[in-house]
Automatic annotation (TrEMBL):
It comes from the Bacteria. This is LysR family transcriptional regulator. PROSITE patterns: HTH_LYSR (PS50931). Keywords: DNA-binding, Transcription, Transcription regulation. It comes from Zooshikella ganghwensis. Gene3D superfamilies: Periplasmic binding protein-like II, Winged helix-like DNA-binding domain superfamily/Winged helix DNA-binding domain. The lineage of its organism: Bacteria, Pseudomonadati, Pseudomonadota, Gammaproteobacteria, Oceanospirillales. InterPro entries: LysR_HTH_N (IPR000847), LysR_subst-bd (IPR005119), WH-like_DNA-bd_sf (IPR036388), WH_DNA-bd_sf (IPR036390). The keyword rRNA-binding does not apply. One of its GO terms (molecular function) is transcription cis-regulatory region binding. Belongs to the LysR transcriptional regulatory family. Residues 1-60 form the HTH lysR-type domain.
Amino acid sequence: MRYSLKQLAVFDAVADSGSVSQAAEKLSLTQSATSMSLAQLEKMLGHPLFERQGKMMTLTHWGMWLRPKAKKLLQDAQQIEYGFHGQHLLSGEIKLGASQTPAEHLVPDLISIIDNDFPEIRIKLGVQSTDSIINGVLDYQYDLGIIEGRCDDNRIAQEVWCRDHLTVIAASHHPFAQCKQVSLAQLEQAKWVLREHGSGTRKIFDSSIHHLISDLDVWREYEHVPVLRSMVANGPYLTCLPYLDVEQFIEQGQLVTLNVPELNMERTLSFIWRIDMVENPLAECLKREGLRMMKSKPNVL
């Protein structure tokens, strides 16, 4: 074989950052050495791996084909190095992306388990909307994602972690709070504040209600759950959020769950990863420990 692991590492770093200079900084190389290494790899393989657009680099179809294979070779090389240096094979960094609800309520416990049982694994966590996590996994920004709801992209593999449900909530002083049941007509008259489009919560809510109410009065849309909780607790609004996000405030009497018989908003929280990525032992460890964690918490969701 004429190419080297160093050249593949350069290719991978440029693909991750879209920049030769950033790749050089990441690998502690000079920019000229990084450019030369990449040029040599492209010459040896006989195909351009990037399209140059000013200082930015975008993958060609050959580069996209090579990327998961290069990552696998580099991953195997790292495991070999760990083995011969006496390090635990479950060592190194994994990039985990999680949407807001699992990131706030479940991922901290998972990280604590990993820190305790596998101290040589370092978890780099990113918290974004479900759509952003899916895009991050597709773009190799994350090795493993945790999303709310389903992903129908055929490039993504998915495994259910656990289940939860969304609930319509109001302040304890809201006129609907004393109703045994709330009708669709009442929901249509209400003022709503909701999660932004692209969030898993908003997708589930929209898909559940769109065939029941054609014109919902949405006043505001926000990314952050605490903003929505506060607006509902102190104002005349309704919202729809995961029960995990409001359970404490319901128990304290600040918020109430509204009984809307027509709405069934159960959903899944799932691990996702690129379907063309070979088995990653760190990702497999996180999934395994996550599933074990949920078995020990039967009443969480």
